[in-house]
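Contributing new complexes? Match this layout with pyridoxal-5'-phosphate.
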Amino acid sequence: MELKPNYYMICEELDMLTEQSLLVTEKPRLIAVSKMQPEERVDALLEAGHRVFGENRLQEAVLRWEERRKRHKDIQLHFLGVLQTNKAAEVVAFFDAIHSVDRPKLASHLAKAMKEQSRALPCYIQVNTGEEPQKSGVLPADLPDFFTYCRELELNVVGLMCLPPAGLNPAPHFALLRQMAITHQLPRLSMGMSGDWQTAVRMGATDIRIGTALFGERGT
Ligand SMILES: *Cc1c(COP(=O)(O)O)cnc(C)c1O
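Output block (do not edit by hand):
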């Protein structure tokens, strides 16, 4: 598995795109999405010095990261997945950021857990830019009210996140997300995955979430 070369190539390309992009002022954060990846690939990336990882399931993340975190105190874990309200407190306790705040009930559970634990994790509101019925995320038209609600809860909302529809040009979705972030004065944009991260960076991403392009295909 040629893992480190993948990593160094992506880092190099990211540096280059950051330099070229008129919309990007600082280098986007590379979130290595380690869900369903073999342990040795995760360790190879840790060995290369990478410390920012993304997971979409609480149980899997705890199994993978609890011990590794004792060895590397500076690991940063980002939660990217569908989050059930009954897991909100555990996710707040274990993770360092949440990219998938997508409904009022979840927002209020997260806000309560963060207050109880005195942990104001950076949160991203997930927006369903393609208005796909099977996908989570607030609809663009519902964002203003939902954002107001999150602010009333004193949730630490730092940005927006999207997953563009598969098979379509992602650029209009990234542009829409960026426009909405500007409107709401939100500094961070979590957008871009293995297939479209370069486009996302050109369009102002501050957080890119890369799994397979970094680690190879996921197991099941
Ligand atoms: C799995 C996942 C990714 C990474 O996807 P790749 O195509 O493997 O890069 C990014 N974001 C979210 C929300 C994911 O669930």
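Reviewers usually confirm one structural detail per submission. For this one: The mean pLDDT is 96.
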